Amino acid sequence: MNKILEIRTNFGLSQRALADALALSQGNVSHYECGRQEVPPDVARRLISFAESRGVALTFDDIYAQKTSA
User: Fold this and answer.
1) CA angle, 38 then 9 then 2, to 5°
2) DSSP-derived secondary structure letter, 2
């Protein structure tokens, strides 16, 4: 599973706000967070650019890293 939820909450954004920033629907963000859809590379690139515009370095590894259980 990807780490979209963690990334989004670290920015303090709602699903709608992140969706708007990435030109997606809120439903897309929800599906990515729940693992129902894989984050496409073009969306990952948009997220990386968005993060960069906010002064945060984000990589493909940050987006696609597997969550680990504690």
Assistant:
1) 20
2) -
> What one-character-per-residue DSSP string does 11-30 give?
HT--HHHHHHHHT--HHHHH
pTM beyond 0.90, yes or no: no
The CATH label, of 3.30.450.40, 1.10.3810.10, 1.10.260.40, 3.40.50.150, for the domain at 4-64 is 1.10.260.40
Tokens of 1: 């599973």
27-67 confidence digits (pLDDT tens): 999 999 998 999 999 999 999 999 999 999 999 999 988 75
